[in-house]
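#onboarding

Welcome to the new folks! Below is a worked example of what a typical request in this channel looks like: someone posts a single protein sequence, and someone else replies with the predicted structure as tokens. Don't worry about understanding the tokens yet, we'll cover that in week two.

Example request:
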Amino acid sequence: MPRKFTNKPKTKAEDVHGGCNIVSGQQTDKHELVRLKIDFENTLKLNLAIQSCLHSLNTYNRARTEGKNMGMEIRINMIGNNVRIIECKIEKNN
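Example response:
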């Protein structure tokens, strides 16, 4: 029986640029510090995700309000042991 291929490749959300897994993580009692230990392979994945996000952010016109308000969110999931890099709008506190 021949294999069936779908025409639609799997895609990710446009604002998610990737992430990595955490080997171990610690959070202080006062939640002032999060210490992450990431192995070399996952460090490369994190680096690639950050560079991808920065490349995308660099396409915005920073002279305009839209470009000035864009930034990067780093989501650290201590339960799932992963980090995600997400392009997002930054709301400035005045």
